[in-house]
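Before relying on records like the one below, remember that each one covers exactly one chain. Contacts with other chains, cofactors or solvent are not represented anywhere in the record.
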Amino acid sequence: MDANGARFWMCSDVGDWVLGDDATWDSKRRVLRLASRRAVTISDPDKASARVAADSLRGTVDAYGTWAVISRDGKAVEAAGAFPQPVVIHRVEETETVRDAAAGPEGVLWLIVETSGGGRWVVMTDVLERWQPVSLSRPDIQPDRVLARPQGGAWALERRHKIMAPIEGVPFPKHLSRSFSPEIGRPCAENPNPPVMGCPIALPVPETWELVAAAAASFGHMAFLFWTADGDARVVVWDGTRFFPPDILSGLSTPFSIGWVGENRWAVVVEHAKNAFVFHLPTGIGTAVDPVGDYYPLPGWNGGPLCNSLHAPVHYLESPTDGAQESPKPRPLHRLSHPCLVKKAAVDAARPFDSGSPKTVWHRLYLEGTFPPGTGVRVRLAVSDDPDPPPRDRFVPFHFGTVPELDPSLSSSAVPRGSWVPFPSEIPFHRGFLDCPLDRDRAGLFMVLVQRPGTRVRSLQGRFLWLALDLFGTGQAGPEVAALRVYAPRFSYRDRYLPDHYKETLSGSDADAAGPPSGPDFLERFLCLFEGVLTPMEDRVAAAHRLTDPDAAASHALPWLASWFGLTLEPAFSERARRRFIREAMILFRSHGTVDGLRRALDIATDGGIAQGRIVVVEDFRMRRTFATILGADLTDEEDPLTSGITGSGNSVLGRSLFLGAEEEREFLALFRPQIAEGAEEEAVVAALFEQFAHRVTVLVRRDTPEELTALVRLVAARETPAHVETRVVAASQNLVVGIASLVAVDTALESRPPLRPVTENRSRLSRDTTVLDTPSLDPRLEQGGHG
C-alpha cells in the first residue's frame, strides 16, 4: 500500500501466468521470456539408410575424457585419449563381433558381443584388470545395445522386441578367487553379489513402434528413441520409477541416435544434417515438441551414432583426416552462442485481479523488465464486474519497448507507453526482481497510467481487472518480464484537492463514447503526471524507518547502520552475515566473552557453520581424561587436536569409567588414576590437571574448509574471546567425534560415503580419507605415465 492508500496486485512467479508453447519461465533468473525454438528445415532420409547409420561404428567416453571405439572389423576395442595413437584393450574371437560398448562407473567396460551364428551376450570387462571378463546372457533376450547405470551395473536392450534387462553384481577380484584350506571357515557363498542379468522389462509402447536407440544419463534418466510407421519419431523418458508419455519430435521422422546434453536436454541426430537437434525434458503430456533454438553444430561428424556416455555433454565421432589410417576421435557436442527465439508469444494472467468493488478505478501499472533493441511487450487490460472474462475487443493496449503496429485502426501514437523510472522498484527501498543493472529505456522499472484511449472518459473502472501480454522479439533477442504490478484505487488530485465543478460530469454511455477526452478527464490525467512523481517520494519518506532495519536497508548503508552500535563489519563477511550481525548486535554484546557468544559470532560469520556442524567449539577442560574415552579421536596421535597431546590409555569400562550421559556428575571421576596418592599430593595433581586445561578453547573446523573461511574463523575467534583465554583454530581429524560433537542433527553432520579423491601431499592419510587405486580410465596408458 502506498502513501495514498492504494494497494497493488502483482504477477511475479511462474504460477501467475498461463504459458503457451511460445513463452517460457526462466526459473533461474525468474523472468518471463520468449521460448527458444528452432523449426526443422531438412528432409529426413529413408529408414533403410538411417538403420545402416545407427548400426555403424560406435564409441564410448568415460568421466576422464578418454574413450574407447570399436575397431572397423568389430574384432577389438581400441582406447585412446591419453596419447594420440589408440591401444587395444579387448579382443574377441574370429567368430565374434563387438556390436556396442559403454563405459560404466569405477572402470567397468560393458560390451555386446555377437557370434557368427547370431547369438548375443553382454561381456563385463574391467579396465583395472581386477577380474577376468565375465559373459552374461539369458535365453529370453538377445541384447544388441548396452547402457551403463550411474549407480553401477548396466541395462541390456533388445531393440527388436523392445525389452531391457538389468545387470547387477560384481565379480570377485582375482586375488580373492583362490582355494582355502578345509580347516578355515568361509562363507557359504564366496561372492554374495555375483553378476547376473535380471528379468527383462517390456517398454510400454505400441507394437508397431520401432526402437532405434537409447541413452542413459548420470542422474538416472533414460531416453528411448522410437520410429513410427507413419509420422514423426517419438521419445519416451524413464526417470527410474516411471515412463513419461512419449513426446513427438516435430518434423523428424528418422533420427537414428540419441544422447544427453545436460540434466534437462537431450539430442538426436539425422543423416546428412549439419547440426544436432536438442530438446528439453519431456512435457509429461505427450505432445509435439520443437527443438530448442540453440544451435548445436556437428563439425567433422562421420555420420555415425552418438557415443555412449553417462557424463554430459554427449560426444560424436569425427571423420578421420587421413582416411583409414587414423582411428575416429570423439568430440563433445556444444552449442553456439546464437539463440533462436520465437518472434511472438501471447501470455495470459492465471487469474484476474479482484479489487472487491465495481467502483474501483484502476490507477497505475508498473513493469520490471528488459527490452533489447527491437523488442517489446504489449500489455492488454480489461475490466468486468463479474468473474467471467470480457471479450477480446474490450482489452486496451499499453506498449513497452518496441511494439509493431498490428491493429491498423489504432495508431501507436494513441497507445499509452511505459516510461522508464530511475529506481529498481517503486516499492520504497526494494531491490526489485530483476537481476541486471538498470539501463535507461532498456532495463529496469517502467510505469504507465492505466487508461483507455479514444473515449471521452478514459479511466478504467470495474471490480475485476483482466491482464494479458504479447511479447515481441527479433529472433535473436527478446523481452523479459520479471514482475508486473497494478495499483488501485486511483488517488485523484482533482477530486481530492480541487472544487467540485472540476469533477467529471459524464457517465454511462456518454463517458464510453468515442471522441476527444472531456475537460475534467484531461485535467485528472494531467495531474496524475505530478502524482506519479510525488507519491513515490512520499512513500520513501513514510518508509524511512526501513533504513534502520538490517533486513531491509540497502547494502551500501549497512556499515553506517553498524556504526550506530559501534560495530565494525569485516570485509570478508557476506551480505547475509552483515545483516544478521547487526540484527543480533545486542545479543552479542550481552554474551561477549562467553562460549555462547563465541559460537553465535562464528555462526553469523560463517553463514550457519555452527548450526550445520561444520564448525565446533570445544572448551579444552572437556578433553581432560585418564580412563575416559573420546570416541572418534586418534588417541595415538600427539598432534591430534582432539586429544591435546595426551596419549595415555583410553580404555574404558562402560558404567565404571565411561559414562554415557550425566556428564556434569561423572566428569570429575575421570580425573583420577590409581597411582595418585591421597591427601595433599592428590589435590596438587588434580589442581595441576585443571590448570593445564583451564582458560583454553579449541575451534574445530572440517579439513575441507576453504583457507579464506578458516582465516575468517581465526579473526572472529580472536575478537570474541577474552584476553586471558587461549584460542586455537585447528582442522578436526573426523567430522563425527562422539563425546565432542555427537548431538545428531544439532552439532554433528552424518554424511554419506565421501567420493574417491586424489592423494594430496602432506595432507592425505591412507586408509582414512584417501584410497590408492589405479586410474579407472579406458586408456590404460594413463596409469603408466608414458607410452608403454
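Residues 625-636, 642-676, 741-750 have pLDDT under 50 and may be disordered.
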